[in-house]
């Protein structure tokens, strides 16, 4: 039962292969096996959104996915969101608008916001509020996060 | 918390799924999207020595339309269903889907998984019950259909036999002149509804020729409000919807929990039903 299973993943564009227990959740494999500690784990049961990553381009909570379920999938973590050495429009907006204080929830916020804006180019403020409702933040009171989402949406729209 | 150890099985055909369930019996659990099952395992509310992962069974991820129904395979992701043209012909389903969790959850969660999980505050079991959907169960003896009205037995309990898998759900398509509404009260968007109502009507002028009202969060299963439906059909499109709401709420015996008292759930129920019916009637008239 402790048998390890080989799982092949493409993570931030790199082919990876890990040997993990079936019960290993994707978030732990990203952090512990692949050293990608940008993905944060808080609640570990799907409530807080800190561990959000893209699985084949779609945002998902990596605490609610066993790594074995992601066999063959392409994963993007917060480390893979930005171009080399730079900041993505979402990350720039989070900095400009004070969308973070302690920063613990920020990786999940950035990944969720990126996924949403990639597929919703012209969101209303109400849309953004709903889109970000799956990520908990205990510092900011959310206003900075929503301001960042607004700025990122407008800039991504203007540049597309 | 981390889930306890299990063996992962990833069959590629439905008969292989059924064979694995037969082999491991009570020690096996079907894993679809995992958005309810993995939290339960992470919190150690349940442990399963064997998980049968159905994500690699192509036959379970299909949506097909017939003139009178839309068949949604068990493994169809909720976000996929949200974007599907055939699902759009079942407006109650299409309207209910965005109420489930958050978009990150719907990217993984499945239609069949939610219905098989049978949480009494979930939207999709209520859609199935409201529309008289047929649950397709596949087991060692082949395929059988279970009426939604006989499927939900209690919290997390269904009429599936040991060794059976929910393989698809057939949602009936209602005809022209129909409208639907989904209304919920929740403390935060994406939370489980404290109380919710799903309603559908078909109008012929001011006559209501067909009605369904189902409530969630008010019992151990989704609750179909037959008396209120009959009252609406008798009263027609201009019936007093507050009264219909009161009739729907009268027999309910919701429970108290940390999120809301039983009295509060009972108190808001008529208003939620009224709102769902108002939306359904408005859509039916348009």
From TrEMBL, chain A:
Q: What Pfam families has UniProt attached to this entry?
A: Fer2, Fer2_2
Which residue range or ranges hold the 2Fe-2S ferredoxin-type domain? 5-81
- Which Gene3D superfamilies does this entry report, sorted A to Z? 3.10.20.30, [2Fe-2S]-binding domain
List the Gene Ontology MF annotations in alphabetical order: 2 iron, 2 sulfur cluster binding; metal ion binding; oxidoreductase activity
- Cross-referenced InterPro entries: 2Fe-2S-bd, 2Fe-2S-bd_dom_sf, 2Fe-2S_ferredoxin-like_sf, 2Fe-2S_ferredoxin-type, 2Fe2S_fd_BS, Beta-grasp_dom_sf, Diverse_Oxidoreductases
> Does the entry feature the keyword ATP-binding, yes or no?
no
What keyword terms does UniProt attach to this protein? 2Fe-2S, Iron, Iron-sulfur, Metal-binding, Oxidoreductase
* Metal-binding found in the keyword field: yes
Q: Which PANTHER family match?
A: OXIDOREDUCTASE WITH IRON-SULFUR SUBUNIT
**What name goes with this protein?**
Unannotated protein
Classification of source organism: unclassified sequences, metagenomes, ecological metagenomes
TrEMBL record, chain B:
Task: Identify the residues that the record assigns to the FAD-binding PCMH-type domain, covering every copy.
Answer: 1-176
Q: Which Gene3D superfamilies match?
A: 3.30.465.10, CO dehydrogenase flavoprotein, C-terminal domain, Uridine Diphospho-n-acetylenolpyruvylglucosamine Reductase, domain 2
What keywords is this UniProt entry annotated with? FAD, Flavoprotein, Oxidoreductase
A Pfam family matched in the record: FAD_binding_5
Q: Which GO terms describe its molecular function?
A: FAD binding; oxidoreductase activity
What name is this protein filed under?
Unannotated protein
């Amino acid at each position: 039962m402790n048998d390890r299973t080989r799982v092949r993943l493409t993570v931030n564009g790199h082919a990876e292969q890990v040997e993990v227990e079936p019960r290993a959740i994707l978030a732990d494999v990203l952090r512990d096996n692949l050293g990608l500690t940008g993905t944060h784990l808080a609640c570990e049961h799907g409530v807080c959104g800190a561990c959000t990553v893209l699985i084949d381009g779609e945002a998902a909570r990596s605490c609610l996915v066993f790594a074995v379920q992601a066999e063959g999938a392409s994963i993007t973590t917060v480390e893979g969101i930005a171009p080399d050495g730079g900041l993505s429009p979402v990350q720039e907006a989070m900095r400009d608008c004070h969308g973070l204080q302690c920063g613990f929830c920020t990786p999940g916020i950035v990944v969720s916001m990126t996924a949403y804006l990639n597929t919703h180019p012209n969101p209303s403020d109400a849309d953004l509020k709903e889109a970000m409702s799956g990520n908990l933040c205990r510092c900011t009171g959310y206003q900075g996060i929503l301001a960042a989402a607004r700025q990122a949406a407008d800039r991504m729209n203007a540049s597309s | 918390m981390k889930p306890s150890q299990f063996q992962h099985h990833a069959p590629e055909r439905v008969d292989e799924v059924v064979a694995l369930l037969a082999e491991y019996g009570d020690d096996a659990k079907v894993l679809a999207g995992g958005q309810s099952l993995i939290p339960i395992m992470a919190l150690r509310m349940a442990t399963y020595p064997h998980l049968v992962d159905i994500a690699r069974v192509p036959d379970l991820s299909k949506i097909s339309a017939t003139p009178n129904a839309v068949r949604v395979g068990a493994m169809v992701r909720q976000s996929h269903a949200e974007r599907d043209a055939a699902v759009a012909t079942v407006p109650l389903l299409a309207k209910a889907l965005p109420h489930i969790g958050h978009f990150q959850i719907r990217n993984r969660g499945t239609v069949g998984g939610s219905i098989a999980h049978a949480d009494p505050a979930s939207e999709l079991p209520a859609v199935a019950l409201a529309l008289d959907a047929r649950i397709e169960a596949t087991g060692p003896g082949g395929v059988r259909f279970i009426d939604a009205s006989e499927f939900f037995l209690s919290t997390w309990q269904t009429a599936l036999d040991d060794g059976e898998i929910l393989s698809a759900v057939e949602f009936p398509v209602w005809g022209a002149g129909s409208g639907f509404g989904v209304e919920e009260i929740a403390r935060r968007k994406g939370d489980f509804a404290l109380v919710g109502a799903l309603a559908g009507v078909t109008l012929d002028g001011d006559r209501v020729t067909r009605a369904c009202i189902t409530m969630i969060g008010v019992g151990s299963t989704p609750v179909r409000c037959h008396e209120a439906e009959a009252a609406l059909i008798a009263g027609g499109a201009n019936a007093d919807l507050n009264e219909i709401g009161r009739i729907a709420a009268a027999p309910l015996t919701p429970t108290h929990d940390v999120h809301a008292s039983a009295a509060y759930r009972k108190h808001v129920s008529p208003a939620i039903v009224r709102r769902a019916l108002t939306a359904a009637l408005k859509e039916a008239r348009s």
